[in-house]
Amino acid sequence: MREIVVGAAQMGPNQKSDTREAVVARMLSLLDQARDRGCTLLVYPELALTTFFPRWYMEDQAEVDTWFESEMPNAATAPLFQRARDYGIAISFGYAEKTPEGQYFNTQILTDREANIIGKYRKVHLPGHSEYDTERAFQHLEKRYFEPGDLGFPVWRTQDALVGMAVCNDRRWPETYRVMGLQGVELIVLGYNTPSVNSQMSKEGLAERLYHSELSMTSGAYQNATWVVGVAKCGDEDGHPLMAGSMIVDPNGFVVARAETEGDELITHACDMDLSVFGKETIFDFDRHRRIEHYGLITSQTGVVRPE
Ligand code: CDT
Q1: Is 305 inside any structural domain?
Q2: Atom number of ligand 1 nearest to Cα 213
Q3: Where is the CN hydrolase domain (predicted)?
Q4: Which residues are tagged catalytic?
Q5: Ligand 1 atom showing the smallest separation from residue 125 Cα
Q6: Domain tally for the chain?
Q7: CATH number at residue 243
Q8: What percent of the chain has pLDDT over 90?
Q9: What is the pLDDT of residues 4-60, one digit of tens each?
Q10: Helix (H) or strand (E) holding 258
Q11: Which label site among 92, 104, 124, 300 has the fewest CB atoms less than 10 Å from its CB?
């Protein structure tokens, strides 16, 4: 059996005033728990090291830069890499990346069990807006602070499996899963920071938000016969609630582990990679059943064009 014991390290809130060191201390505690439960891969959320800073409008680039990491590992995260290496646990987490060329991305990395970074993914689907929006209950300025990812949706071979990554809003787009599905992906790991209410429609509350998140991940898993692990940063960040709902979804689209709290919480599952084989060889055997002659609009057109 090709098994990866996956841990989803849901994190409670990071306040604006929290230092990277304080956050990493909590990540280390989750790593200790993951070791006790036999994990070989531990997944943390999007922007794990900081608060979800795109809710704050900033004009001073020097201030914006304080939320970004210009190298990884760095002084604050070195203890996490060191302990992951000691335990032989691969890790994946999200952070705001500033490149040496001065580009800014919403990034997630994947290591092997020796803590070498073997994969990097940069968020493709950036939600929100780039200028201050007076119509919203709160801001979501990802389009202001990040560029769309430039690495596509690669898949890496590690721990005898094919593993891909996505970040938050990416999980709502079927293209995300399908591009990795076409590379044979067996496990997709993703982190998210999702506000508990819709900033543009206050009556859309927590229940709907949790439902849409689950719907997106379970359908992506089923339609591509892959494991999906979604990990939240959640709880109240400086008065702004983020939803929880971290889960591990099997290749048939069933939730096999689910977080129960809105704080630091580890959920785990021994994921059999071979569970994806049946779906990939039958109903979702892309080679036999896909009809690409009818899919051209998906890559030639971005928005909706209605007939006259
Ligand atoms: N972080 C992130 O991508 N959050 C979005 C919120 C969308 S509302 C502008 C999400 O899809 O969960």
Answers
A1: no
A2: 12
A3: 4-275
A4: 46, 123, 168
A5: 3
A6: 1
A7: 3.60.110.10
A8: 99
A9: 999 999 999 999 999 999 999 999 999 999 999 999 999 999 999 999 999 999 999
A10: strand 255-258
A11: 300
